[in-house]
Design goal:
This protein is an alpha/beta fold and 432 residues long. It contains 15 helices and 14 strands. The structure holds iron/sulfur cluster.
Length: 432
């Protein structure tokens, strides 16, 4: 199985037009990915290439449009580049060493530093005589690169490399510099980390309904299955209708049952209370970030019944065909309405840059985000919090709807604060 995009570190190359970004990406990837030409604005949408990158493991190299493109199309391209920078784990700022620094280059580099991500400067055209002003400007960043200021370790430029794309020099040093950042990048845990041991058995409950993709499982299910097999666990996979009989027939009960969020209530009603149970969505919220990020969202769920209308922002990180059973636009709004008696107005988006400006939202529900990196997931949650919108994920929302949040997170004692925030909603009838 190829490593999914959401598991790969993203290395984003950015800078002004004609700085040599595309040639540099091609040189690092060892093949032509982007069209290279002398006139500005050759790269339009970001171009991505997956590769193995020594100590960093599987990565995606992302070539972007110049951030100084002044054309009408350019502003759209710049917006796309800014989107891509949100998901960057490492930023390579590319600047031509043979040209004086542009004012916009200085602004861009300062703005990049505010993103608190490791930055490496690649100085291109090293085969040509250096521009003195550029050298003076870069000296300041060289000092920062050498500084041991651990407090600002993500803000500082982490290295500077002089490269020639035409003579293919300096590329290997730059690659070693990028690889040396391996230890500074926050790693994702695997879905079952800390929950099962070698030889345990686990049970997966995976409904195959009209919303399921034809002929395959969805990514969270596949990843949990693979993680369990990597840990030499025995895996029993059933649809909800077969759960009761399959569970009753087991002599040795599973260490853990993981269910699709939509079947949480049913699964909980079938299994005994002492059976450890959680959902794919909750495992992914823990894998991609912190369950505690959803504390405000859970508290907001508890207050929705006080509103006249619930303005709901539904965020799904990838495209799929919407059906009459769609979770974001149908099932969750229907559940919220049934639970609170308040009408629900839904706006569904794929990315926060699609959010209608200035529109008020009472709460955002976000999918398991299995297709995006931990870095992008974190950036999205931070952007929602910054906009004053409490956020909760699909799995916790559905568990809340059934009064089952305590059960869904009892495996994770570090998140007991979430349990307390919705304790009033426990419907004991559904726990027996
Ligand atoms: S909608 Fe979200 S959870 Fe579902 S497959 Fe796409 S990224 Fe994964």
């Amino acid at each position: 199985m190829r490593t999914p995009r959401g598991e790969r570190l993203h290395i984003v190359f950015t800078g002004i037009c004609n700085a040599g970004k595309s040639s540099l990406v091609n040189a690092i990837a060892g093949r032509t990915l982007s069209i290279v030409a002398d006139h500005p604005g050759t790269t339009t949408d970001p171009v991505e290439k997956s590769m193995e990158f020594s100590a960093l493991g599987p990565v995606v190299l992302v070539d972007t449009a110049g951030l100084d493109d002044a054309s009408v199309l350019g502003s759209l391209r710049t917006a796309r580049t800014n989107d891509v920078l949100q998901k960057a784990d490492i930023i390579i700022f590319v600047t031509p060493g043979n040209r004086a620094p542009l004012h916009c280059e200085q602004t861009i580099l300062q703005k990049l530093q505010q993103r608190e991500k490791p930055i490496i400067v690649a100085v291109t055209f090293s085969e040509a005589p250096s521009n003195k002003e550029k050298v003076t400007w870069l000296e300041e960043y060289k000092k920062l690169a050498a500084s041991q200021d651990t407090q600002n370790k993500h803000r500082a430029v982490r290295g500077m490399y002089f490269v020639s794309n035409t003579e293919n020099t300096g590329i290997e040093s730059l690659k070693r510099g990028i690889a040396s950042l391996a230890d500074t990048i926050e790693k994702e845990i695997t879905p079952l980390e800390g929950l099962v041991n070698e030889g345990d058995s686990i049970m997966l409950v995976t409904p195959i309904d009209s919303a399921a993709p034809k002929g395959r499982l969805i990514l969270p299910e596949t990843e949990v299955l693979r993680d369990a097999l990597d840990r030499n666990c025995t895996v029993i996979t059933v649809q909800p209708a077969q759960l009761g009989a399959a569970y009753a027939n087991l002599i040795q009960k599973p260490k853990l049952v993981v269910t699709d969020s939509q079947a949480f209530s049913y699964t909980a009603s079938v299994l005994p209370l002492h059976q450890a149970l959680t959902s794919f969505s909750i495992l992914f919220a823990r894998k991609k970030g912190e369950l505690a990020w959803f504390r405000d969202g859970i508290a907001m769920l508890d207050r929705l019944n006080k509103l006249n209308t619930i303005n709901l922002l539904a965020v799904e990180a990838c495209t799929h065909n919407r059906t009459h059973e769609d979770i974001a636009t149908v099932k969750i709004p229907a559940m919220l309405h049934a639970k609170t008696g308040v009408p629900v107005s839904v706006t569904a988006i794929r990315s926060l840059s699609d959010k209608p400006p200035n529109e008020h939202f009472d709460i955002a529900v976000i999918c398991g985000s299995c297709m995006v990196t931990r870095t992008l997931f974190k950036a999205q949650i931070a952007a929602l919090h910054e906009a004053g919108i409490p956020v909760v994920n699909f799995g916790l929302t559905l568990a809340w709807g059934s009064g089952l949040i305590p059960r869904a997170i009892e495996l994770f004692p570090e998140y007991s604060i979430l349990r307390e925030s919705s304790y009033d909603f426990i419907n004991t009838a559904q726990l027996v």
